[in-house]
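Collaborator request, handled under Task 6.
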Amino acid sequence: MDPSKISILGSTGSIGRNTIKVLRHLGSWEVEALAAGKNCEELLEQIEEFEPRIVSVADEETAIKIEGSLATSGSTRRPEIFYGNEGMERVAGAEGVSTVVSAAVGAIGLRPTLKAIEAGRRVALANKETLVMAGDLMTTAARESGAEILPVDSEHNAIHQCLRGETNKEVRRLILTASGGPFRTKPLEEIRNATVEDALAHPTWKMGRKISIDSATLMNKGLEVIEARWLFGFGGDQISVLVHPQSVIHSMVEFLDGSVIAQMGVTDMRHPIQYALSYPERLAGELPPLDLAAIGQMDFEEPDLERFPNLRIAFEALALDGTAPAVLNAANEIAVQAFLDRKISLAQIAEINESVLNSIENRRASDLETVLDADGQARKIAAEHVAKANVQTASLPAN
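Structure tokens returned to the collaborator:
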């Protein structure tokens, strides 16, 4: 495998676009394959710039559009075009690729990420659902194939940096930091009545719509706790969450002797992406240095589980293990989309998540089909809850 060749799953999403920026800065990588959704305009620009051999899109209709645009562009080097799950797996397993950036949003990234792991690639992982749903399967496959899983999420990337040169037996706990989202200081009633626009207005990070809602409910932190369990091998009793609104410290590790190592940096996803691509080297970046004097002070708070019950529910799913995390993830995806579609209130996301988690028998996540079956059951039941929700859509603010 050529160490300079890369594939990107989710190239037109937030992480994908930032990966492209990092690649432009580094200047020494060849983009062999790209997978995107339906954003034809941006994908065509990426194809023109990087000339990948393989491209995958969401569906056949989008594939036809891309092929038509390339045919009329006069380009002499055109990629093979695929679509759907098969296309994503082709991108993940592209011949000669050493690194796969897994940045597709949601459970759709599960199969292609496993494909990359089974092929022994380095996986720069931004798709948290992969480990939330099937952490045991993914980490087992990585051990068998020799694949590396390097986290791109800023919190897990920070922990990875803090653990360099340390051993797990020296660690007391991992501390994931959370910005607190747009409702950190809001009373419960105001959170319950929040609009889509309120929930999307993240005070620190610029992210996609789904992850922005997860940040507003602290579900993103709950999913990250489950992900950390598989990335670093610690149980839920050794993982905690601390609200840190300035988002300067991205996470910390506390050791048995009481020492705490924290990773700090500017709030820009290009840093963890570049770290995952260049590890174990540290290469010069293009981001400005962290100015602690300008920041002035840093605040820390315990998360309020009454106002943000999704975090409690995630810890409960982690304790159950098995297919419970996959069930929670699926229910949350359905509930978040329903909120974005103004079919339910923000508070009902947690209500649906807890109800679905408690209604499906927990099974051992012994294989991918069992995990996907649990995922399908959860989506069906969550959709039924949405259909029954007592929210008058007409009364919710319009876009």
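The cover message to the collaborator said: "Residues 368-388 form the longest helix (21 residues). Residues 82 and 255 are 48 Å apart (CA to CA). Please let us know whether this matches your experimental observations."
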